[in-house]
């Protein structure tokens, strides 16, 4: 044969050959054995000591949490080899030789009854979680791995049978004299925990009907977990036969194309923390199942993404919440889709949708069909999207910015086309305020899109001042819109309504947030060498146009009404950059700019902005003002306010340290930390950097 | 390459196309699939391939844990480099019930 020539069947080309998996290539060949791995031989009927059984259970629990942490089953749960041979440990069919050769300290029932029940229930638990995750709300291979490698998760087996098998094992453990009491209790508490987990997993869908049962199981599961956490099974001897029960390389034998990856087993505390998060998630689901207003849902969605690290939000829980909000048929298990329309207006501006719809023949009329369809198709994805993973959530919010404008445009068109000849001025004014409810939702979404860029560490250092400046601009418009719906002659929000309470909270909160954004903008501009933004503007502008491409979307052109906020004004940005630089160098601020800023705040320097923000945040905390939220949700909002207040104080320390006259040595003592940890701990605020002491520096004493 | 100019060995190799091959490789695995092509360095392309791992190469004992393991797993289209091939056997397509147990190692070379 000539070099480069091939002998192939007809119609087979070189490009077809390129799709083949090369055997022996470690990157492609999942079955390849890279090194000689001394995997001990596994015989499922090998008798084991109770402590070895306990160790196997704990090990498999750790692997289960790793599956919930977006690892494939083949690398986690399926490494437990009993999962592949449940039939071999069935007490009804085991060979008589196994029964005869038994050791009293290693009763065979620990395998045929206990491990069999536990493994079956573990697989069934994964099956129930898999069913929820496979509903399609969270993307496969991104938030979770659906690949079962053709291994059974006991899909067709009833949950009741799994529970009954666990009950039989618990009964045997209670009666047996072959297991020391200490290990009896240790194994029993683990089986009981599994029993509660499987019941919780199976009853999440029917939560509103069996709330009491659900809460009882949740409470009992917490109790079991607290005991398990304290009584971990110590590691077993390195020669123990229990080690053979796990094969981390099992993926190379299963029907999967996933390359083998050894998943590190988390520590016992990390495993218990992961279960704790699952239980906390169920508690949130329990609370949300009785929450019937979309503002609270919206707030809960934002809060969990602001204050919980992605690793601390199991995909299973996020999927359950999305299903709970809308299961394809009803909202929160009881409301029709149209319910969101009335709630949207009722909760935002305190007016019923009927006040609006009666002028077009009432809700459901032909003239309102398109508007109502658009509202439903915007609100439902908006809510569910809040429980996506952070980058996807941000992309989803970007998409809804246009959706909200479509709704706004539809409302404006209806109001404009209405014959208002005989309409009284109050009604006319009221109708004209309805579009503002949509604007408020859209502005909240835009603000979240801009600021969430800090959460996902999206921005280049040079882009950060712009992000804060643009956020402050959007907040400015938001405050104006809030004033328009709540103040003066045109104000329509009823006095003493929850909406008015919320608007008041939003007003104070947004002024504080805006002041913090302006602090960061000015401080960051001054932290660069003079004129850096101007000298690099061409490149920066190109980056910004790409980063904020949603604001330059030509799709807006087809709508009759202009969006309230869209493209950022780059000229205005550069002017303010120049002013910030000049102020930093001791130049006077132009009088017209001072006058303009005084419209919103009297303060201009970063320190004054921070003082204003801190004062407002502390006033909200002192008066316990959490807007329209009540119950458990108050705590969430307070956490946000406290975090922002503490951030203000940290930034004050940072600014006072970095502006000391002539004392440049202190500049390096404190630094801004922009990194967002993907571990379980989160910074105080989602949108601002943490202030950290620079490593290797000694803090100066206060009286220095 | 036209069939009129190719050597008898290549002509015979061409006759094997579409037949079922059983290839044993260095790490003890066996691949059974339809032979669809090869090139000058003797990389062998199989489609509809099943991978089998009958014995544990270290212990020589049969793996007990899994019946599905013993029945093999589907790996689809694979390319097996000549350097790891230990043995190639061909199944006669006209008589699927009988297997030719010849070692084709020397024949192909």
From TrEMBL, chain A:
It is found in: Cytoplasm. One of its GO terms (cellular component) is NatC complex. Residues 315-504 form the NAA35-like TPR repeats domain. Keywords: Cytoplasm. Residues 579-603, 680-704 are annotated as: Disordered. It comes from the Eukaryota. Signal peptide: none annotated. Residues 3-161 form the NAA35-like N-terminal domain. Belongs to the MAK10 family. This is Mak10 subunit, NatC N-terminal acetyltransferase-domain-containing protein.
Automatic annotation (TrEMBL), chain B:
Residues 11-90 form the Sm domain. SMART domains: Sm (SM00651). InterPro entries: LSM_dom_sf, LSMD1_Sm, Sm_dom_euk/arc, snRNP_SmB/NAA38-like. GO terms for cellular component: NatC complex. PANTHER family: N-ALPHA-ACETYLTRANSFERASE 38, NATC AUXILIARY SUBUNIT, SMALL NUCLEAR RIBONUCLEOPROTEIN-ASSOCIATED PROTEIN B AND N. This is Sm domain-containing protein. It comes from Lentinula raphanica. The lineage of its organism: Eukaryota, Fungi, Dikarya, Basidiomycota, Agaricomycotina.
